[in-house]
Amino acid sequence: MDSKVRVRFAPSPTGGLHLGGVRTVLFNYLFAKHHKGEFILRIEDTDQTRFVAGAEDYIQNTLAWCGLVPDESPLHGGAYGPYRQSERKPIYAKYAQQLIEQGNAYYAFDTPADLEQKRKEILNFQYSKAHRMEMKNSISLTEQEVTTLLENNTPYVIRIKVPDAEEVKFEDLIRGEVSFETSQVDDKVLLKADGMPTYHLAVVVDDHLMRITHAFRGEEWLPSAPVHILLWKYLFGLDQMPKWAHLPLILKPDGNGKLSKRDGERLGFPVFAMDWTDPATKETTIGFKERGFLPEAFVNLLAVLGWNDGTDKEIFTLQELIEGFSIDRVHKGGAKFDYEKAKWFNTEWIKQLNNQELAKLVRPILEKEGIEIHEDDYLVKVIGLVKERCHLLPDFITQSNFFFTPPIQIDTASILPKWDDKKKVFFTELAKNYAAKITDGHLTAAASDLETEFKNLAATQDLKPGDLMLPFRIMLVGGKFGPGVFDIVSCIEFKDAMQRINHCLSLLA
User: Which terminus of the chain, N or C, has fewer Cβ atoms within 10 Å?
Assistant: First the structure.
């Protein structure tokens, strides 16, 4: 076994990448980088019937968005390629043949119709020692019959010959010792009739040839473990097998079962990392990226779904995760997904992100809404004022559009109950003061100076500033939201503020 840590993520290109899959990527990546090792992406596309166009690019794009860039992959190359199993097809037949010669595998000539008939005859039929001799294979047939079938190019698959009444066990890095009885395991197909390997053979051969030292995968793969252990034993020796860790599931919000795409659709939150459009149905499933999550937040929230560093700390940069990650802190039990908590992580990361970097992300969102942005510095300033109010990136639309264009809808209904002539006089005078400043050549002033002038004017008219703040806010932004009103005036300038006050006064007349 190679002394250098080498891990792999090996998805099938069958559709969008579920957040559970991204967490598997993340734990592989963190473990590798913590140990100064290498992270490999291998595309397991041997089942051509399930192949979906565009899915491999989607996987590559998702990893790039998350910042989890492989050291070796179909895109990046590497010393152990090819990194698509379909391009490695010639490799696997040799190992399947070796297993047959060793007596650990056999030819099976059963047709799909034969198998279907057997399933009708026997409830929960398994192709195993219990029914091997009833089927058409190189164990039940004579040597001459097998030779004739092979010479006649009769289609066949190669199946592993699972031994009877043996205990197969291994040490899981998360779960400790895990054992299986082989009497409960069927003779899995290793090589299909088209010469393509199944997952079971390919994953073992490729992990060996790519010198994988640790294999992390979801706990749903545990039932496959005995077949893989046997293949390691028969082909390469158990001392060559990677150390395994089966990661806990990400559960539905109520904790009852594995989180699925349907749960997201039912409860209104994404479960895919990025938008995925099914090429067959043209149906688009929304992703965390398009919903408005930062990649830093997405990675952070996945890291603490089933892992912690032993403290109460929840916000981690990727570098902090790399430095602090250890597999023994991964929980055995499943982790419930909480979308509100996920949004909390995004809120915290929006607060932390540099305003200039945030502006690059927000600008296209605002422009898509038809909001014109003329100066980058102005956008950066606005973002600094509103970002603590934003949970998702699209929130910047409602929280900042009034900085760029006057509000169309004015919530005068919230002003009218306490509106009177004294307030009307006050705001008429305030608008005149701003007009005078424009005439004098002033564009704006510091928020603190604006607040002082506002309070002084209120005092001269025997009004409480607190009674004037809500109407002023609604005049500026259209509703009861937004940052400090004097910060808003300081940004939008006197001319715009004056026009908004006068417009609202006309509506209240």
Answer: C
Concatenated DSSP letters of 11-33: --SSS--BHHHHHHHHHHHHHHH
Candidate list 89, 243, 258, 261, residue with the active-site label:
261
Q: How many CB atoms lie within 10 A of CB 219?
A: 17
* Domain locations along the chain: 6-73+249-340, 86-205, 354-403, 412-508
Dist. CA 440–CA 47, nearest whole Å: 75
Dihedral (CA of 117, 118, 121, 123) sign: negative
Q: Which CATH code of 3.30.565.10, 2.40.30.170, 1.10.8.70, 1.10.3720.10 fits the domain covering 354-403? A: 1.10.8.70
Structure-token match 């090589």, residue found:
191
Is 412-508 CATH 1.10.580.10? no
Mean pLDDT, residues 345-354: 97
56 touches 74 (CB < 8 A): yes
Residue 1 has a pLDDT of 47
Please give the CATH topology (third level) of the domain spanning 86-205: Glutamyl-tRNA Synthetase; domain 3 (3.90.800)
Round to whole Å and give the CA distance between 220 and 234. Answer: 24
Query: What is the token pair recorded at 36?
Result: 């100064």
Residue spans of beta strands (DSSP E) within 42-192: 105-108, 157-160, 167-172, 176-181, 189-191
Measured CA distances, 382 to 19, 39, 285, 374, 481 (Å):
33, 40, 32, 13, 15
CATH for the stretch 6-73+249-340? 3.40.50.620
Phi, psi of 262, deg, nearest 5? -65, -35
* Stretch 384-404: mean pLDDT: 96
Q: What does the pLDDT read at residue 47? A: 82
Query: Facing residues of 168 across strands?
Result: 180
- Tell which residue, 87, 83, 90, 115, has the closest CA to residue 189: 115
pLDDT digits (tens, 9 = 90+) for 188-241: 999 999 999 999 999 999 999 999 999 999 999 999 999 999 999 999 999 999
Average pLDDT over residues 95-104: 98
DSSP state of 311: S
The CA distances from residue 492 to 71, 488, 500, in Å, are: 48, 6, 10
User: How far is Cα 281 from Cα 260, in angstroms, rounded to an integer?
Assistant: 19
10 Å Cβ neighbour count for 137? 23
- For residues 190 and 96, the answer to whether their CB atoms sit within 8 Å is yes
> Closest Cα partner for 235 from 212, 214, 204, 263?
204
- Is-catalytic flag, 464? no
Contact 19, 302 (CB under 8 A): yes
